[in-house]
Structure formats: structure tokens, C-alpha cells
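Worked problem 6 (solution included).
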Amino acid sequence: MSPLNDLFANKLSVINIGAPVFKDELAAQGADVVQLDWRPPAGGRPELIAALDVLQDRPETETANAEAVTAIFTARPVLIDVALAALDAVPGMTPTTILHAGPPVTWDKMAGPMRGAVVGALIYEGLAADETAAGSLAASGKITFAPCHEHAAVGPMAGVVSASMPVWVIENATHGNRSYCTLNEGLGKVLRFGAFNAEVIDRLRWMRDELAPALKAALTVTGGIDLRTMIAQALHMGDECHNRNKAGTSLFIRTIAPGLAKAGLAPEAVARVLAFMHSNDHFFLNLSMPAAKAALDAAHGIEGSSVVTTMCRNGVEFGVRVSGCPGNAWFTGPAQMVQGLFFPGYTAADANPDLGDSAITETYGIGGFAMGGAPAIVQFVGGTPADALEYTGKMYEITLGENPSYSIPNLNFRGTPTAIDIRRVVAVGLLPVINTGMAHREAGIGQVGAGVVRPPRECFDKALLALAARVKGK
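Solution. The predicted structure is:
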């Protein structure tokens, strides 16, 4: 018998590469068959494969990436202050500057929730008397709009920051850079979802006049608060520090409460401050976000690095920045619709496309990347605990390291997948997973649900091509 006949005379064990129909036919005939999930790198697109060839196994890129990963892992974000006005702390702020979430966007293209938040901010600042006047002012060219990320800041959902809003001040004790974020308003009718009625404005002014000064006084007593340690503890208590912040908020209250008690404040004021924080399980989100921002900014601008340092969305576009493309080089694509669970009375038709700077948590290796250690989050965003584990497990395929500070107990304390590499994202076609809230597409209605979303692929394709071109030009 010929070798070919010998082959078919024996029981076959087959690995099928390609259409699964061949695997199905072989299995039906009793063959041992395994389907190999193989796809050509970068979807087979020649220009992307060429860019990967430029960057892959390049010693200078590996060195740059090692530097970026080290910067992220060694970062130690510390809460050092509450600035009573963004104008006094945030770089580049002016009395007529409005910062917003996501990549750059103009007033005429803003999503409904962001337009509502801008209107509310202009009323809060006393620059406009009502919605009509605020809209006219926003469209007049007299207001400067800019991404929070271009001013060392971050903001959830609409992400709007105006001059007299108080902000957390976080310092990266390792590298010396700072980041900023407003204080979390709570749930319901809030500015970050585009609400701007009297209740919203009154709450913002109370936060400016009583909450922020009280927290500033308490920090003076307690000293700085190490947010890296607090995030690590929260992860071990079932948070992922994006959509689940129950543990982080509790830890923060526990830490700040003695300072509030010792700061010489009126007892009634202390009671109001503690009650406000206690009523808001998301209070810690506005601390985990700038902590992530402080760490990632330290890794931005490293020549040749393919590490992603920003992922964010403005409700119209999703934006990515990469370490090796320094400054404010944005790579954008259309904001996607979040897939998940809707609150009673709402459907997908009510939801706005993906919105907010909170994907900085996933960029840092927590949030959706740490869902495997926060199985209860699926009750909020949909899916099962097994799905949460799978999300985390897959993210190791597109990241360069495992964070030694943030571990997942039910993965044998494996470090969270950290430092997204655009080369890996493009090569394997696996996009980062983000768990997030959903805003109503109309201003002021608020949150309508929560779920999981992934960025548009073109953000990473564009970033890869730009980085490869930059490297070739050196």
C-alpha cells in the first residue's frame, strides 16, 4: 500500500483550519477532529500587516514598552488635596473653559447628555441665566471646549468640568505628575448625565460650598491617601473600580471620617457630608479614574512605545491615544452602542452611544479587565460570573503585563491584565472589553442601564499605522 493509502487505512486525528463545515463533516464520520480558531493577522489587511512588520520584534519598541509598563506598575497615585476651584489647579483652565469627556468635539456635534451638561455648567458658573442663553453662549465661540484628557483630568459620562467646580488633586508620588477629577454627584438627575434643573445646580453649589471644603479640611488632618493601596483592597473585596465601587467608597469613608471628626467642622456639616457619601456607592469612581489617569500619563510620550495610554468617548466618537505618538494625537472611530441590561421602562432606542472618560480604568487594567474578581457586577451589566472570568482571561492576550499591585483572588491572585498593546489588538483582532453605564440620548433623563462595550476597531488600526509611520520616519 502507498503511504497515502496507509494514512486513510487508520483512524484519523484531524486539526481543521478554515471553514468549520469540514470539521462538522469529519466529526459526523467519527473522526477525532479539532477546529483551530485561526485568522490571518490583522484580518489579512496588507497595510496593517506591513505596519506590524515594522513594529514587531523591534528592539527599540520592546525597550520603550518595558519603560511604559514599568511607569504604570510603579506609579503610586496619592490623593493629596481638594482644590476648591478647577481654575486654581487644572492646567490651562480659564473662566470660560469647559472640559468634556472623550476626544475633541465641537458644540454642534455634541451628544444630548453632553450638551445638557454644558448648559448646566454655564448656568452654575453664572455665565448664562437659562437653557436658551446657555445654548446661545455655547454656540457663540466665546467658550473654549477641550477634552479633560488634554488637561490632565478625567470625568465620568459627559465629563464636564468648569472653572469653579471643586476637583480632587491626585499626585503620582513616583513620577511627580498630577491628575484631576470632579467630585461624584451621585445617581439620578445629575450633571454628568446632562441634567441641569434647579436641583442639580443647587447640589453642585452645595458640593462647592460645603462638601469640598469639608473634605479639604479632613485631608489636612489625615494627610494624603494612597489610592493604589485602596484600589488593591477594593479589588479583593469584590469591586472592579469602574461600575462597582461599593468597597472603594466604604474604604474611603472609613479613611476620611476621622479627619472630618477632627477638623473642627460643625457637627451638622459633618453629618451631611458623611450622609452624602454613604448614599452614593459610586463616590469612589471619581477617585479610581484620576488614579488611573495619573499612572497612565506617566507612561505617555515614550518614543516608539505601542502601549495605549487613553481610551475615552464623547458620545459621538471613541478616542485612543498611544504612548509612542506623543502629545494630543487622537485616533478615533464611531462610539458604539452598549450591550447590557436596561432599567425598567427603557429600551435600546433610549440609549446614547458610549460616553465618558471612565474607560481610563480599563486602560489601567481594572474595570472590565478585572471583572473576573468582581462576579457580582454581572447583576448590573448582564451576563454570568463565567462571562466575567472569560472577559478578564481574554484581556491577557492583548496586554503586556500583570499588575503586581492589583490581583484577582479567584485567579490565584494573578495580577490584572495591564498595558494594552496596539500591536496585539490589531494582530489578533481582539478588542478591549469595557463595562459601563448607559446614558439616555436626551439630556437630563439620566442613566438608563449598564452593560459591556468594545471600542471600534479603526481606532487601533489608525494608531498602529501612525506609530509605524513615525518609527520608519526616525
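Discussion: DSSP finds 16 helices and 17 strands in the chain.
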